[in-house]
């Protein structure tokens, strides 16, 4: 008889886990509180414009393909990749910009235009971090660490020391590269996992290095097309996805998770419960007894470290902006001060920005001759209670961001071309997606909150209860969450064997 599985939340972790388990013969149902599936990996549609709500940078293409491969499906029947090159266009307040391309000859020419010394340093930096990435990928990212000895055995500790993670990202970058513009370009990308390059461990320099060595991709139709592909595959296996179903409680009986209860007091039972809701939210809200929370009691959750949050402006423009690539950075004056503000409870006055313009390569996201762009600034999470996300705060951020955009040559008139405008705030992340404290990436992946020290896939206090998502091992980011899906399924299969 098939074992039944209930998954709370239809984020990318929940859906990929559902597909993998369905393909292994489990009876799987997914419950989502919103009317649209996808969690934070969602979509904003305002004809003729289509925007990815949050996630937009596709690294590690193979892990996207692997979800379908694990289900004995051909990914080509579900998604279409578009190569992105240059991977980034990086703009600066003095009017200069650099293209960082996958082509080594072009890249070297760009670096040599800065300085030969930094061109050499950049190559050495890539080599150093690539070596660390191979160690991390082989020995940590693909290991579950459910048991202490999996991590504390001598071989793991030796490999952990080889990653040299005790320096910060900026410190490591500065060892190899002297030019401030290059330092800022590489440092900024630590923010993709919600940590500061001046405080977070240097292992996250692997983010720009993976982009450079393996390239970036765009999914035709945007990142949400992956969600739709997972939905289609889930239905092909007979899986069930129910929206507008808000879970209020995970039901525990005799130390076992046996079902869920909705806010409307509907009760559904299953053999296995998996929460794709943000882990701290699950502990705080969905488990009612401290006995079942273990060390993650509500009183202890506030002592953990959380990632920063994000503020996003979505602009529908009436004309094309060829000055932009798909992925762009604007690295503003007072770079460190304004990056630090997201982690010290202040709004940046001169924000550095990530600018996403998918319509440079994907006409399916727009039904006119204009452009869709999303502009992302990192801001404090809601644990800093001095900031209220009201109309005044949004206007402050909007004006500062547009002021920065206008410093890019060719974008001086951008405000005149806006025909649609919308925003995403930390409060939206909390209210719509149960992001604990409005943190964009969940628990911060600090050294004391990573690998064995990060929340595990399997509850130590409740049988048949599992977790998947950005706040559990291996950490935040879409491609890493897809790895967490793979690992949690391995744990379930191992426990059922």
Automatic annotation (TrEMBL):
Ranges for domain Amine oxidase: 12-493
Pathway terms, separated by semicolons: Carotenoid biosynthesis
UniProt-listed GO biological process terms: carotenoid biosynthetic process
Swiss-Prot/TrEMBL keywords: Carotenoid biosynthesis, Oxidoreductase
UniProt GO molecular function: oxidoreductase activity
Coiled coil (UniProt feature): none
A Pfam entry, by short name: Amino_oxidase
Family statement: Belongs to the carotenoid/retinoid oxidoreductase family. CrtN subfamily.
Protein's recorded name: Phytoene desaturase
Origin species: Cellulosilyticum lentocellum (strain ATCC 49066 / DSM 5427 / NCIMB 11756 / RHM5) (Clostridium lentocellum)
Species lineage: Bacteria, Bacillati, Bacillota, Clostridia, Lachnospirales
């Amino acid at each position: 008889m098939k074992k039944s599985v209930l998954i709370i939340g239809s984020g990318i972790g929940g859906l990929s886990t559902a597909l993998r388990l369905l393909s292994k013969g489990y009876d799987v149902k997914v419950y989502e509180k919103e009317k649209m599936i996808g969690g934070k990996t969602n979509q904003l549609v305002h004809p003729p414009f289509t925007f990815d709500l949050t996630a937009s940078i596709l690294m590690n293409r193979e892990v996207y393909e692997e979800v379908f491969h694990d289900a004995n499906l051909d990914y080509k029947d579900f998604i279409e990749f578009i190569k992105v090159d240059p991977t980034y266009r990086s703009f600066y307040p003095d009017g200069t910009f650099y293209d960082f391309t996958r082509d080594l000859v072009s890249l070297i020419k760009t670096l040599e235009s800065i300085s030969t010394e930094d061109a050499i340093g950049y190559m050495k930096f890539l080599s150093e971090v690539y070596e660390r990435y191979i160690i991390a990928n082989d020995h940590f990212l693909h290991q579950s660490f459910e048991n202490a000895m999996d991590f504390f055995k001598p071989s793991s500790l030796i490999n952990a020391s080889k990653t040299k993670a005790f320096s910060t990202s900026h410190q490591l970058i500065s060892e190899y590269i002297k030019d401030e513009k290059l330092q800022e370009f590489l440092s900024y990308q630590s923010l993709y996992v919600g940590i500061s390059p001046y405080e977070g461990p240097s292992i996250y320099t692997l983010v720009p290095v993976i982009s450079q060595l393996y390239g970036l991709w765009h999914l035709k139709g945007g990142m949400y097309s992956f969600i739709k592909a997972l939905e289609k595959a889930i239905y092909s296996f007979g899986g069930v996805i129910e929206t507008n179903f808000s879970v209020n409680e995970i039901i525990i009986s005799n130390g076992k998770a046996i079902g869920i209860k909705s806010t409307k007091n509907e009760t559904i039972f299953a053999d296995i419960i998996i929460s794709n809701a943000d882990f701290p939210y699950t502990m705080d809200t969905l488990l009612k007894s401290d006995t079942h929370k273990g060390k993650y009691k509500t009183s202890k959750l506030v002592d953990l470290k959380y990632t920063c949050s994000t503020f996003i402006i979505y602009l529908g423009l009436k004309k094309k902006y060829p000055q932009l690539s798909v992925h762009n950075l604007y690295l503003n004056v007072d770079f460190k001060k304004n990056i630090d503000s997201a982690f010290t409870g202040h709004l940046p006055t001169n924000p550095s920005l990530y600018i996403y313009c998918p319509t440079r390569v994907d006409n399916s996201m727009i039904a006119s001759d204009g452009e869709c762009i999303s502009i992302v600034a990192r801001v404090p999470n809601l644990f800093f209670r001095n900031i209220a996300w009201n109309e005044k705060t949004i206007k402050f951020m909007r004006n500062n961001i547009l002021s920065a955009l206008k410093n890019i040559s060719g974008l001086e008139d951008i405000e005149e071309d806006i025909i649609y405008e919308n925003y995403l705030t930390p409060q939206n992340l909390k209210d719509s997606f149960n992001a604990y404290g409005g943190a964009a990436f969940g628990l911060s992946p600090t050294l004391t909150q990573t690998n064995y020290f990060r929340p595990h896939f399997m509850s130590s206090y409740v049988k048949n209860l599992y977790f998947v998502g950005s706040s559990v091992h291996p950490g935040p980011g879409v491609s890493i969450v897809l790895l967490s899906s793979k690992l949690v399924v391995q744990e379930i299969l191992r426990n059922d064997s």
